[in-house]
Amino acid sequence: MRIGRTAKPPVHLITGAPKGITDDQAFRVRGYVISMSLRIVFFVAAVLAQGWLRWVLVAGAVVVPYFAVVFANGGREPTTDEPDHLVGDVSRQLPAGPTPNG
User: Fold this and answer.
1) Cα 88 from Cα 84, distance rounded (Å)
2) pLDDT digits (tens, 9 = 90+) for 4-45
């Protein structure tokens, strides 16, 4: 061990990691189920309501599936942030490999 060593190994932070794909899918499925449940409530309420309120509820029941499907199929958002462990010291790059002719 050298005394006065200033270079430290990179520290990887778990808080900077993206949400797991299983958690992301579960979140989107949960949102879809809630939206479709709301659609059922709109249909039942439209049967029980009268006048203009009935047509507002029918319109809501027709429009909700569009937003539910768009949300469910949205997928993961791309990130533009670089991880912290890649930023900084680039002097630790691998040397160039052998050339095809030599």
Assistant:
1) 8
2) 566 677 766 666 667 778 888 888 999 999 999 999 999 999
Q: Is residue 39 part of a domain?
A: yes
Q: Specify the 3-state DSSP secondary structure of 9.
A: coil
Domain for residue 3, yes or no? no
- Structure tokens given for 53: 């309120």
Q: What is the DSSP letter of 7?
A: -
| CA atoms of 13 and 34, how far apart (whole Å) | 34
The reported pTM is: 0.58
DSSP letter for 19, please. Answer: P
How far apart CA 43 and CA 54 sit, in angstroms, is 9
